[in-house]
Amino acid sequence: MTQHLRYRGLCPINDECPKIERGREGWIEVTGYIPGDDHSVDVTIEVPDTLFPELADLDVPNLGAWIAAHHRTDLLRIQTLDSYGSGSDGDDVRRYLSGAPAPSSPARDDWFKKLRDEAAAGRIRRNLHVVREPLTPYLRYAFEWGYVYNQAAGMEIRILPVADTTADAHLAKLGDFLVAEGVHVARMRYDEAGSLLGTVKISADAAEAYAALAELAWEQAVDFTPWWSEHTQYHRAQRAA
């Protein structure tokens, strides 16, 4: 059994403890806070998930299948990280940063066709990214070689700059999650390198709050295209000039 100390206020759900969450594979994180003389600290203890068999049905072992089962007309993804580790990028991150002329990942064409087909069928995909400036090299890549193309293929994308609204601080604590049809919510957990550790379903009573916050953030965010046009300092051509 391992124990980690974190200052109070870093709970990803909210500032109320205790809470129970899925951690790394095979473990559950139980968090509570201990009052101190000068401040309070959150104490997170990892315990084997066999001690919480009732949480087994929260696992989403296949995120693609979960999306296919719930996405009928609307799917909203909330992203909060500055960098992600994804095999679907192929070698494109390195190529972008080294000045290569165009992305080359073979998965891109199939993905863009999927987006176009969904848009034609009236199945909306929305993506909101909470942004901290200056952008990391990964986000410059993701925006220029990812979001620009995704939006052209039918995805609706908005940017929520940190500290511009009251919603962004709460989203930063929640982390990444998906809302399907405004009802079904799946929370995505990443390690420090931005690699996906796993996905868990959010119970119906909590999902309502997730969905409401996501929609509030969406309304307060700005459309990606004008935001990107106004932030030319992150464009690769501008940085190379």
Strand fraction band? 25-35%
How many DSSP E strands?
Answer: 11
Radius of gyration, CA atoms, in whole angstroms: 19 Å
Oligomeric status: single chain
What is the CATH homologous superfamily assignment of the largest domain? Endonuclease Chain A
Instruction: List the strand order in the largest sheet.
Output: 10-9-8-5-6-7-11
Q: What is the correct CATH architecture of the largest domain?
A: 2-Layer Sandwich
Specify the biggest β-sheet: 7 strands, mixed
Task: Walk me through the structure.
The chain is α+β, with helices and mostly antiparallel strands and 241 residues long. It has two domains: 2-53, no CATH class; 59-240, Endonuclease, Chain A, CATH 3.30.870.10. Helices cover 34% and strands 27% of the residues. It has eight helices and eleven strands. The protein has helices at 63-70, 92-98, 107-120, 137-152, 167-174, 204-220, 224-230, 236-240, and strands at residues 2-7, 19-22, 27-34, 41-48, 74-79, 124-131, 156-161, 177-180, 184-190, 196-201, 222-223. The strands form two sheets. Strands 10-9-8-5-6-7-11 form a seven-stranded mixed sheet, with helices on both faces. The protein has a four-stranded antiparallel sheet with strand order 1-4-3-2, with no helix packed on it. A hairpin with a 5-residue loop joins strand 9 (184-190) and strand 10 (196-201). It is globular, with a radius of gyration of 19 Å. The N and C termini lie far apart (53 Å).
